[in-house]
Amino acid sequence: MRRDVFQAIADPTRREIINLIAHRSLNLNSIADNFTVSRPAISKHIKILTECGLVTITQQGREHYCKANFKQFKEVSDWIEQYRVFWTDKLDALGKFLDEEK
Predict the structure, then answer these.
(1) Which fold would CATH assign to domain 5-101?
(2) Which of 35, 43, 67, 90 has its CA 20 to 30 A from that of 9?
(3) Are 66 and 28 a contacting pair, CB within 8 Å?
């Protein structure tokens, strides 16, 4: 089943996993150590992140390391951009209106 990026980042645990591996690869146990939920639960979260392409897993010896794939965030960035432009325009217009009222 192919999941989308929005479904993956909707969960706070998955967002925290992405934060953990944003700057360096971590093995599954190192990631799981940061949470109070079970390791199998963390593995399920990582599976979802992998299915949508936000995380890649590489094997080094017996360990599996997770690395963030930020190229997949372009879809989210593009979606957010339309709202950034909208609100920037609205706030600029409000600022202009308030300046004229002075």
Answers:
(1) Arc Repressor Mutant, subunit A (1.10.10)
(2) 90
(3) yes
